[in-house]
Amino acid sequence: MERVKKQAYTRNFGANYFWRTKQQQEVDWVEENNGELIGFEFKWNPKAKVKIPKKFEETYNTTITTINRDNFRQFVQ
Predict the structure, then answer these.
(1) Which of 3, 12, 61, 70 has its CA 20 to 30 A from that of 77?
(2) Which whole number is the average pLDDT over 21-48?
(3) Residue 53 contacts residue 28 (beta carbons within 8 Å)
(4) Are the C-beta atoms of residues 60 and 36 closer than 8 Å to each other?
């Protein structure tokens, strides 16, 4: 919800999604702004291994940013 509030405060009215394939590959948070998709994966532990679905990156020609306890404030504020 904090990210949605940030979007409203900054007048960023893009759409938010969750992405998953039939093979259960997933991206936790996807934002669409002006036809561009940006993916985010959440792991509280900054040392946790993050498995990024290549299919997402290749299909949408974008990257995924990992959000953890070290950088989550920038994501929500």
Answers:
(1) 61
(2) 94
(3) no
(4) no
* 3-class SS string, 18-50: EEECCCCCEEEEEEEECCEEEEEEECCCCCCCC
Write the DSSP symbol of residue 21. -
Q: What type of residue sits at position 51?
A: K
What's the pTM? 0.86
Residue type at position 72: F
Residue boundaries of the structural domains of the chain: 2-76
Q: How confident is the model at residue 28 (pLDDT cuts 50, 70, 90)?
A: very high
> pLDDT at position 34, please?
87
The closest of 37, 38, 47, 43 to 67, measured between CA atoms, is 43
